[in-house]
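Step 1: inspect the first sequence and its tokens.
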Amino acid sequence: MVKEINVEAAMFKDLVLFNFQDTYRNLTVKTLCGLQFVNVAYDTKYVFKIDDNAFPNLKQVFSFVSSLKTNSSNVLFGRVRVNAHVHRSGNVAVSKDEYPQNIYPDYCYGSFYGLTKGAVKALLAANINFPLIPIEDAALGILAQKSGQVKMMHVAQWLFHPAKKKDLERCTQYFAIHPVPTASMVSLWNMCGKVQRPVQKLLTN
């Protein structure tokens, strides 16, 4: 399998390979590797991370980044979580050795957030020789605090967590919806199609 992956990567240039096991507890490592790749390979103003079970409203997102002021150079934006407690048990557990404090710094919910290119650079610089926790979104909040440069920006209606299937119809009111069943992705795209497709055309030109 590794041989076939290397062949595809060499042929199509569509894969980025890093040396770690792709597990939930390595999501912080995976995210930082992605940011490292973007920092080196792309000259872009903004970077977005989104879970595969989240649906983005591209029109809302594009409108928002177009309105950002030029001095917003080191910003991490999304739905900001404040005073989140550190869990010591369960699938999001972090030990005292990994992070001794009981409250995390502010951070953006990990299902969907955006960063300026300046924030990417600052987070990567703060990560040098710094122990990471396995909770990706909280880890970026810690690195943002350590950097002393990255600011959190809370965006109203950035992320919506639907309680029922009918709530998915509210997709046009938010920047993103999470979680979304795979079977509902196409219907959401069609529902938002009139606003999505012009942005898709603009982004791909």
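Step 2: inspect the second sequence and its tokens, then contrast the two.
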Amino acid sequence: MTHAEEQQLAAWQAKINAPASERKTRTQAAEPSAITAPTSNPIYNAYWKFAAERQSVFYKRMRGEPGPWSQDPIIQQYTFTNAYRASDRASQFLIRNVIYDGHENQRGPEDTFFRVLLFKIVNLPETWEYLQGKADLTWTGDKATSTPWITC
């Protein structure tokens, strides 16, 4: 351990072992002078430019505008996840067919939670539809008529 690391460790130990009256609590606000504005740099700027362009492409596609939707060759050539996770194909399927499938009022929260976890394991609509045709995809199941989901 370097000398600087030893000093930092000693400072942390002193804070931890200080009497409660001398320690700051989580609810105590930082001094206004200690808060500084984020600094801009080329990487930060490039990230936000890319995010804004990607979102612009999303809006143009949703409006039905003909492509290309961007002048950026990378955005034209490659596909990217949506800026809003709930907008992607698998998330839309999860919302419409796994959570709100028309039977959500007949299921308890345990079953809905289980269905979401199970879908996120496979994360493919086609696999979900296959499994749904083979078994009752709920945690509790219809114990009188169905086999446990795990035997499918």
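Step 3: confirm your contrast with the notes below.
The radius of gyration is 26 Å. The CA atoms of residues 117 and 147 lie 19 Å apart.
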